[in-house]
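Sorry to interrupt, but I need a hand with the structure work. I would like you to pick a protein and set down its sequence and fold. Please put the record directly below this note.
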Amino acid sequence: PILYSYFRSSCSWRVRIALALKGISYDLVPVNLVKDGGQQFSAEFKALNPMQQVPALKIDGITLSQSLAIIHYLEETRPNPRLLPQDPKKRAQVRMIADHIASGIQPLQNLGVLKQIGERKTEWAQNCIASGFQALEQILQHTAGRYCVGDEVSMADLCLVPQVANAERFKVDMGPYPTITRINKALLELEAFKVSHPSRQPDTPAELRA
C-alpha cells in the first residue's frame, strides 16, 4: 500500500492510526499542503485524487480517498482488530461520532476554508470546534467507557484524537470538555496513536519533531 499524506492533516492521521492498529505496513508519499502553493493542486496528484485532498491510499489495485471510506475498506478487508463494534447500537454510535467530527467539525476549520476566512481564521476555527465539542461532550457522556464508545478502540476514536490536536493548535479552551480530554489522554498512550502522530512522520519539519 501507498499512503499519500501530510503530517499535519487530521484526516491523514485517522488513516495512519487505522493502518498502525491493523498492522498494515505501507509506503508514505508526503503531499505538502502549503509548499509550492499546495502540492495537492499538481496535475499529477489531481489525477490520483480529483478532490485534491489528502489522504489517498493505493491498496489492492485501487486508489481510495476520503478517510472514513478508507477506514471502512480496511475494516472490511482486514477485520482484526475490529474498529466497528459487533453490536448494531454501538456500531451506530461509533459511526455517529465519527461523522459528527468528520462532517460536522473538521471541514469547517480545514485549510481551504480558513484561507477564505482570512484574518479572522483563528476565531472562526475556535468557534467551529467549540460548538462541535459542546455537542460531542454531551454525546460522549452517554456512550463512553474508557474510549468514545465503551472500552474498545473504534473508528470514533480515530477521529477524536486528530480533532483534539486541531483544537489545541487553535488554542481552544478544553476546560469545558472533560470527557473528550480524558478519552484523548487514554488514546495517546496507545502505540498506534503514538507512531502515527504528526510529530513523528517522515515529512514533519525538524522543529516540530517529537
In short: The chain has a mean pLDDT of 97. The radius of gyration is 16 Å. Strands lie at 2-5, 27-30, 56-59, 62-65. The domain at 86-191 is CATH 1.20.1050.10 (Glutathione S-transferase Yfyf (Class Pi); Chain A, domain 2).
